[in-house]
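Schema walk-through. Below, the input block comes first and the output block second. Nothing else is stored per chain. Lengths vary across the set, and this one has 151 residues.
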Amino acid sequence: MANTRARLRMTTLYAYAGHHKLLVAGTGNKVEDFGIGFYTKYGDGGVDVSPIADLMKSQVYALAAKAGVVQSILNARPTDGLFADGRTDEDQIGATYDELEWAMLYIENKESYELTERQKTAMQIYQSRNRANRHKMDPIPVCMIPKDLLT
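--- output ---
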């Protein structure tokens, strides 16, 4: 049901944007969009432009603070708003954005040091979600039909 809600939200945004000749902006950060694929394919992942997709969550917060975003928003726990029970992103993922950002940077920087038990758990969550959601983050596979079948 949550994915259906995300797709309905996207459809509504595109209806509004089309009517007003606007673009739909994405809200995903680097960890969500390219780390763990925490978005709905053809839902909140369906956007025209992704202004913060190259920023880690910590950078998004720093930029928001610098831009004067009110403290109540900066302190709010991230949520996709798709569940009536108010669960947060962390509730759904099982790790904080700080932990996921750490895991992503650990892998990108090819670091190597002894991990704590919580770091091992965060790394497992990151890697598991990254593998499971590659179909969202990689380009859509294109079937190459042999030319002899087309004649």
